[in-house]
Every structure is written in C-alpha cells, then in structure tokens.
Structure to design on (475 residues):
RNA sequence: GGCCUGAUGGCGGAGCGGUUACGCACCGGAUUGCAAAUCCGUGAAGCCCGGUUCGACUCCGGGUCAGGCCUCCA
C-alpha cells in the first residue's frame, strides 16, 4: 500500500516516498496565538491530523515526526499585549493553551513537536546570517531583507514570475527595498516592543523566517511533507522555500526544502468568506459549546481536503445524523467485545489516495452495515473491531456510544430518566401497555426517546433537543 | 491585469470513458403492543456549446457562473 498525494509544487498526484521510512517528517503551519482560532483555522488541523494518523499507521507510530509551530511573536500579539497592559507571553501562553484544548476537542492529536518562535531565536539568527553570507539578503536601516532577484527559482511554488507580480502589484514599496517583493527577515523593534539582540540591531524576526528556521533546526532539511492552507502558498511558503534553500547554498548544498507540498482548500460560511466585517467568524471555542467536537471534525472531513467546504447548519445537522447512526450501531452491539486490531486495508487504501476522506466515510458505512448484518458472534466481533479500527485512523467513533446519546444530561436528570425507564420496562414485562405508554409520554416530555429491545431498553436525548441547541441556526 | 480552483440527484459529496459511490432527507416493504432503531427495496444527477470516441458525468477546446490568491490570513 502506497500513499499518493497531490503535490502543489508539481501540480499532480504523485507517489509518496519518504526520505527515511523510519523518520518521516511533516510540518504544518500553526497558529499565531493572539486570539481564538476560528473554524477555518481548524480545517488544516483536522486534515493533517488524519495525515499524521495515516502516516503512523503506514510507517509506525514512532517513525513519524509531526511539527506544528506556534507563532508567539507578531504585531497582533504586541497590540493585544499593549491593549491589555501585559507582557506578550501572558497573551501567547493563554491562547496557546486554549488552542490546544480546543483542537483536542476536535480529536486532533498533539503534534510531536510544537516549536515556538521565542524558543528558536538563535536558529532564526543563524539562518538569516547564512542567507546573508550567501549573498541572498542585505541589511538596510536595521532591517535584513531577502533579495528575491538573487533566487532564480522564486515563484516556482505559486507559479508566478516576478514580472507578473510587479505588473499587478499592490505591494507598498518601502524605501529600503531593492525590489518591491523583497521581504523582511529581520526587522527593528521600536522602544517598548519585544526585541532580541542581533548583529543588525535589536529587533524581531519577520513572518516567514520562523518556519524555515524552525524546520531546519527541529526537523532538518529537507522535510518530507509541508502542509498548510491554500492561502499560504504565496507568499508564505514561497518565501520559506527561498529562505530554506538560500541558507544552504553556503556549503554548495541544496538538498531541497520540502519534498511534498499539501494545501487544504478554503472554508466558507453559508457561501461567504469568513470575515470580521461580515460578522460571520465562527470560533471553534464557541462552536464546541454547541456541537460535539466529533461532529465538527467529521463535518470538516466530509469533503475532500483540497476542495472548498461550505460551513452550514445543514452540514452540521447531516453530519450529526450520520454519526448518530454509527454510534447507534455501536451502542446496539456494545456487549460485543472488540478486538484490538490494525486498520483494515480498505480504509487505508482510500486514505492513501490523497486522503480521500469522503470515501473513507463510505467505508465506515459499509463496516457499520457489516456489523448490523453479521450472522453470528464471531462475525460481529470481527466487524466491530474493523469498524473501530477504521474509525481510529480518522479520529472518529472512539467515544463511549452510551455517552454519545446522553451528552449534557446532568446526574439528577439521568437518575430520573433511568428510574422511569426501569419502571417502564417492568410495565412492559407485565404487558401493562397503558402504563408503558404513559411513561413513554412522561419521558417524551423530558425530551427523551426510549428504544425497546429484547433485553431491556435504552434511551437518548431527542433530536429536537439538539436542534434547540442551535444546530439549525446557522452554526 | 496576472495566477489558481470549482460547477454532480432535494441536500452534502466521491470514483469512473461503457456496470450501485456513500451519507442525509423522502417513498414502499419487513419487523415492532406503541415508538425508535435495523434490514430489504424504489425513485433521483452530472452548468452551456462544440470536438474526440462505437460510446463521455468522466478526455479536449470555448463559454457562462461561483470562489480563492496576488496585502495580515487556514
């Protein structure tokens, strides 16, 4: 079984060959921690979490190194810190913690490494120095700027030439730039702004240098896969390549920067781009209060990662129903023991086809049906094990099925419901249908559905309750 | 202006040059004291115009529409 991924640089689907199968490296651009992450920020997190899980299944759990940076130096952070009268690390630690907690709610594993800019200043300074030494950058008025014209391959990833860009350029040209597209590697800090000493004066890193420097320092060049949102192709990733490669030229080496590039498509909200001016920015932190994290995760995986995804109330409702169905099956067969087993080839196969998660859902459905229709216990055990193993690769279906349907019920209500259900089971055993119906009605009033079975009864919160929690109101 | 995506049934969303995606919803049947769940089954598609082909949703050309990037942005 071989992974094939669509490589942005080559613009085609290619077979994936890691440089070293015992040390597969993946880097994804992470958050700038000055505020809450919105649902669009969560898409790459979930998508590349599936890739991380898949790579681990393919190459072994300890043979994959996944790094996702935390940008904790940035003008927006400075502004937030200034506004609140605190040091920047008060802001960055706070929001990094919230970010990690929120992403965990979406079922995302912690990356192997989470390098922070403030912990990698030395690496950044070293890379800038190397780029300078190689003649690909120049220092001017406290800034160090990358000289784009010195790097012939500039524009390869985004397929644009410097000439094209200049034609339609809206870039503001700073007086110290030789070419309008030269970008900052290091910039001076004003008094009061966070600053680190450097050969070019006290300052801080530019936006793009952190990723290439942390990749070189933490993973080593080249890395196998570099991922991120589609919008990062230019200029961010283009600039990363320029920096990473030009830093190496000192030794006459050019081992490459990233061997495969993957970019996820954009998420829209009810057909519109999410933006503050439209007031439709949905924060993950708020969403998880209203919708189970697993539903959000599944919704984000419902379309292929490269395509667009429109976030709508309908999408959430449909995703909730789909998961309800599968968890319903798992609850029905809760007594069937599950075997610990590796994910079946079928599920890995579809994911190996450039992370085809829609087909993976079809596979999940097939496995659930196999469990429902299994002829005997042995078949049920096998089917359930396969379903759970397939879910594990996707980061789905690992929760307690009973809890799935009872989320948000407090202990008092739960005790009350359990008592009523027990009472009703007794009435049914006695074939006392009027009482049984009366109790069903009482439970109905509590927003509870009772499901009878040969061995007793189970219950769940009614779907209507979920609606009331806001599912149909444009989340 | 330059670069780049996408357009599939009521909705979401894949694969595929000739055969069922899958899911949600709907309908019919089985089952059920009632109900739910489940199972079986039916119906439903490929933006427009050309071209290639024995045959195109699938390939090629053109068009239309929608969206993204080129400036902080997943």
């Amino acid at each position: 079984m071989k992974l094939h991924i669509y490589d942005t640089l080559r613009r085609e689907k290619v077979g994936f060959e890691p440089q070293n199968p015992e040390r597969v490296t993946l880097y994804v651009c992470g958050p700038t921690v000055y505020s809450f992450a919105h649902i669009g920020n969560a898409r790459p997190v979930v998508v590349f979490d599936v890739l991380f899980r898949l790579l681990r299944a393919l190459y072994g759990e300890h043979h994959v190194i996944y790094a996702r940076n935390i940008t904790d130096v940035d003008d927006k952070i400075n502004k937030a810190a200034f506004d609140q009268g605190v040091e920047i690390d008060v802001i960055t630690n706070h929001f990094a913690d919230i970010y990690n907690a929120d992403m965990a709610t979406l079922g995302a594993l912690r990356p192997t490494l989470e390098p922070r800019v403030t912990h990698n200043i030395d690496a950044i300074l070293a890379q800038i120095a190397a780029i300078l030494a190689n003649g690909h950058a120049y220092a001017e008025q406290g800034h160090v700027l990358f000289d784009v014209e010195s790097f012939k391959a500039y524009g390869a990833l985004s397929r644009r030439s410097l000439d094209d860009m200049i034609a339609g350029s809206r870039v503001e040209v700073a007086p110290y730039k030789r070419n309008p597209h030269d970008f900052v590697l290091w910039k001076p800090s004003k008094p009061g702004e966070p600053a680190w000493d450097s050969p070019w004066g006290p300052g801080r890193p530019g936006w793009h240098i952190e990723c290439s420097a942390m990749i070189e320092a933490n993973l080593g060049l080249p890395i196998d896969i570099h991922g991120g949102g589609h919008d990062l192709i230019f200029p961010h990733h283009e600039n990363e390549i320029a920096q990473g490669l030009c830093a190496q030229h000192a030794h006459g080496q050019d081992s490459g920067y990233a061997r495969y590039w993957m970019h996820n498509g954009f998420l829209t909200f009810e057909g519109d781009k999410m933006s503050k001016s439209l007031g439709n920015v949905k924060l993950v932190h708020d969403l998880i209060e209203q919708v189970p994290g697993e539903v959000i995760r599944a919704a984000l995986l419902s379309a292929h990662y490269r395509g667009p995804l429109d976030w709508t109330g309908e999408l959430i409702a449909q995703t909730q129903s789909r998961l309800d169905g599968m968890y319903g099956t798992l609850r029905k067969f809760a007594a069937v023991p599950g075997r610990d087993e590796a994910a079946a080839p079928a599920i890995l196969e579809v994911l190996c086809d450039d992370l085809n998660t829609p087909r993976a859902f079809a596979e999940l459905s097939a496995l659930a049906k196999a469990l429902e229709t299994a002829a005997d216990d042995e078949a049920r055990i096998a089917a359930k094990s396969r379903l759970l193993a397939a879910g594990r690769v996707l980061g789905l279906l690992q929760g307690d099925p009973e809890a799935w349907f009872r989320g948000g019920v407090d202990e008092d209500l739960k005790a009350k419901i359990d008592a009523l259900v027990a009472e009703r089971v007794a009435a049914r055993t006695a074939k006392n249908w009027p009482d049984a119906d009366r109790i069903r009605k009482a439970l109905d009033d509590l927003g509870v559905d009772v499901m009878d079975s040969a061995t007793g009864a189970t219950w769940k919160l009614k779907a209507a309750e979920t609606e009331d929690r806001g599912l149909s109101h444009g989340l």
Summary: The first strand of chain A starts at residue 4 and ends at 7. DSSP finds 17 helices and 15 strands in chain A. The first helix of chain A runs from residue 39 to 59.
